[in-house]
Amino acid sequence: MELDATAVDSAFNAVTKDYQKQATLPGFRPGKAPLPMVVKKYDAEIKDEAKRKLIGDAYRKAIDEQKLQVVGYPDIEEVQFGRGQSLQFTATVETAPDFQLPEYKGLPATLETKSVTDADVEKALDLLRGQHANYNTVARPLASGDIAVVNYTGTCDGKIITELAPTAKGLTEQKNFWVETTEGKFIPGFAEQLIGASAGNKRTVNIDFPADFVTKELQGKKGVYEVELVEVKEKSLPALDDELAKKFGAENLAALKVGIRGDLENELKYSRSKNLRGQLIRALLGKVNFDLPESAVAHETRNVVYDVVRQNTQRGIARELIETQKDEIYAMAAGTAKERVKLAFVVGRIAEFEKIQATQEDVIRRAQNLAMMYQTPVDQFIKDLQKRNGINELYDQVLHEKVLELLERNAIITESVPTK
Question: Domains in the chain, start-ordered, CATH in brackets?
Answer without folding.
Answer: 2-95 (3.30.70.1050), 134-236 (3.10.50.40), 251-416 (1.10.3120.10)
